[in-house]
């Protein structure tokens, strides 16, 4: 690989793909993703800003050619390529696209695009292609060119037979994958529903492993030979390599339970974050019986806030890696990490200089928010469970202990646990961002118009919502949390198909149990007393119940039966009186 540094601008509508590609490319020291954008307009704006400073800070544009379904978006992307080539003729462009239409690719080549390769190309090969294009050469991948393929020696070599055979294999493979993917999606959706019995989860996990194994077998047994590439310089072709699923991260998990991960820490992070990004596209309404501070937000604002927190968590992990933090230092700086995360998210979400009218004065929102740092830190941020475990897993690939069983980093169980911890972290940090707003600026019209759900904008609804939160804090502090400590578990909020749901995970909490005092201690003593007398009380009630049934059926019931029988017999023996005028 050349030592010439690569500085990229990524243009793709899919945020999940951009995240996965950026994290994968960060493994290469001589490569830098300078910027990543979603729209063509943003790409042109970035290039214009760099042109005013130093356009040499970017030496390659990597973009998706629209998408495979919309012809309109493909034409717009072609226009973008033409505009870039017109304004910046020396800036090379590589299409990293799912589009396979040969006519569209020829059109792209005709306007001066320097190269094309499909999504799913192994990342090491992709970087080599980028180096070739930056060096002034071109690269164009070719699909289904049977004239350049070498037929299998086990079959006749006539082109018609070979095309028929390969088409048959491809149809069988696609048909099998379609059925497997449908079943896999259904099983994966069921696995994401919290609160399922352990036995049912084990059965679903087994079904998922079988489907993944079946898909792997189909893709390998029914694979058809594919050409590598056609290079304009007719250079010797590299040896055939198996594609590695690094760039195009799949939509479902491909890591089987309790299987050690071969991913780097950054790739493992990308995997977890990708699953979380997928879930953020689901409905976000609260389906639990507990009020959440973020429930006050409009759906779009709630999703925007959670996206922002996820991005800031990724930045925080990068900062920790760059500072070469050691694993035993995470516990000491956990509070500082969460405080800084909350501060950055609040500042960006509300705006550093955003102002609202409060009485006769204009005040900056963020200044009011940050005044509640101590209350937020104590009441919400420090209560977020297992943050150190999550960060250790993402930074150092430590194993996770789940239900007293140790699972290797990258295993299905460990990834699922990390996902739940990350989702709960996002929701709780979101609560911490909104809580000061409700306390001090909750009834200001500008705030209500810009942030609140339309169902909660009246003063009465806001006060009712505040009261609900106030009761939540009291009940959690005095009852819910002591009960969870006594039961050795943590309650987590997670993203489920129907909305934000609540689940519980086991965790040893003996030290917290020993530190309970006052009402919180009496709650646990009451639970223990109830556990102690419950079996005896149940036996006593069962005995008393049996006695009552005996009295009602054997004594009272029999007595009533005798009385009723006597009445009926008496009625049956009554005769009509003789008439007064009866003659003797």
TrEMBL record:
PROSITE patterns: RESPONSE_REGULATORY
Transmembrane segments: none
CDD domains the record matches: REC_NarL-like
Record-linked Pfam families: DUF3685
InterPro entries, alphabetized: CheY-like_superfamily, EvgA-like, NreC/VraR/RcsB-like_REC, Sig_transdc_resp-reg_receiver, Uncharacterised_Ycf55_cyanobac, UPF_Ycf55
Annotated Response regulatory domain residues: 7-134
GO biological process: phosphorelay signal transduction system
PANTHER family: HTH-TYPE TRANSCRIPTIONAL REGULATOR YHJB-RELATED
Protein name (Swiss-Prot/TrEMBL): Response regulator receiver protein
Organism: Fischerella thermalis JSC-11
């Amino acid at each position: 690989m050349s030592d010439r540094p690569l500085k990229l601008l990524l243009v793709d509508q899919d945020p999940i793909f951009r995240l996965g590609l950026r994290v994968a490319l960060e493994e290469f020291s001589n490569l830098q993703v300078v910027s990543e954008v979603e729209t063509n307009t943003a790409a042109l704006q970035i290039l214009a800003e760099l042109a005013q400073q130093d356009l040499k800070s970017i030496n390659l544009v990597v973009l998706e050619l629209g998408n495979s379904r919309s012809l309109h978006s493909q034409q717009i992307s072609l226009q973008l390529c033409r505009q870039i080539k017109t304004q910046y003729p020396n800036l090379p462009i590589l299409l990293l696209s799912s589009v396979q239409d040969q006519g569209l690719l020829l059109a792209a080549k005709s306007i001066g695009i320097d190269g094309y390769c499909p999504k799913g190309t192994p990342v090491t090969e992709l970087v080599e292609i980028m180096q070739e294009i930056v060096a002034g050469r071109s690269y164009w991948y070719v699909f289904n060119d049977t004239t350049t393929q070498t037929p299998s020696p086990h079959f006749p070599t006539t082109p018609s037979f070979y095309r028929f055979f390969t088409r048959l294999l491809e149809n069988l493979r696609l048909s099998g994958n379609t059925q497997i993917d449908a079943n896999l999606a259904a099983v994966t959706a069921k696995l994401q529903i919290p609160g399922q019995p352990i036995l049912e989860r084990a059965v679903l996990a087994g079904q998922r492993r079988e489907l993944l194994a079946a898909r792997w077998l189909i893709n390998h047994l029914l694979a058809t030979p594919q050409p590598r590439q056609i290079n304009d310089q007719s250079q010797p072709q590299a040896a055939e390599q198996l594609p590695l699923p690094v760039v195009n991260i799949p939509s479902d998990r491909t890591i089987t339970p309790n299987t050690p991960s071969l991913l780097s820490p950054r790739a493992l992070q990308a995997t977890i974050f990708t699953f979380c990004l997928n879930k953020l596209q689901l409905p976000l309404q609260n389906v639990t019986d507990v009020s959440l501070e973020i429930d006050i937000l409009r759906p779009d604002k709630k999703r925007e806030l959670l996206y922002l927190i996820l991005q800031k968590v990724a930045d925080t992990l990068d900062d920790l890696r760059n500072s070469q933090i050691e694993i035993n230092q995470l516990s000491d700086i956990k509070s500082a990490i969460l405080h800084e995360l909350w501060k950055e998210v609040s500042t960006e979400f509300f705006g550093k200089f955003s102002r609202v009218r409060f009485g006769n004065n204009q005040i900056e929102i963020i200044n009011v928010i940050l005044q509640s740092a101590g209350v937020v830190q104590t009441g919400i941020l420090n209560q977020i469970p297992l943050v150190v475990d999550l960060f250790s897993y993402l930074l150092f690939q430590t194993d996770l202990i789940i239900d007293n069983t140790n699972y290797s980093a990258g295993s299905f169980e460990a990834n699922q646990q990390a996902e739940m911890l990350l989702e709960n972290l996002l929701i709780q940090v979101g609560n911490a961002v909104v809580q000061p707003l409700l306390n001090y600026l909750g009834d200001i019209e500008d705030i209500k118009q810009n942030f609140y759900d339309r169902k909660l904008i009246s003063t009465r609804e806001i006060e009712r919502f505040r009261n609900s939160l106030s009761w939540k804090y009291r009940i959690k502090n005095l009852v819910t949390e002591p009960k969870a400590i006594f039961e050795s578990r943590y309650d987590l909020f997670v993203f489920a198909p129907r909305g934000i749901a609540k689940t519980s995970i086991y965790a040893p909490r003996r030290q917290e149990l020993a530190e309970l005092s006052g009402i919180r201690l009496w709650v646990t003593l009451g639970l223990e007393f109830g556990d102690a007398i419950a079996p005896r009380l149940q036996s006593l009630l069962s005995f008393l119940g049996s006695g009552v049934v005996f009295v009602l059926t054997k004594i009272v019931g029999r007595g009533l039966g005798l009385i009723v029988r006597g009445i009926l017999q008496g009625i049956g023996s009554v005769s009509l009186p003789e008439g007064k005028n009866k003659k003797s």
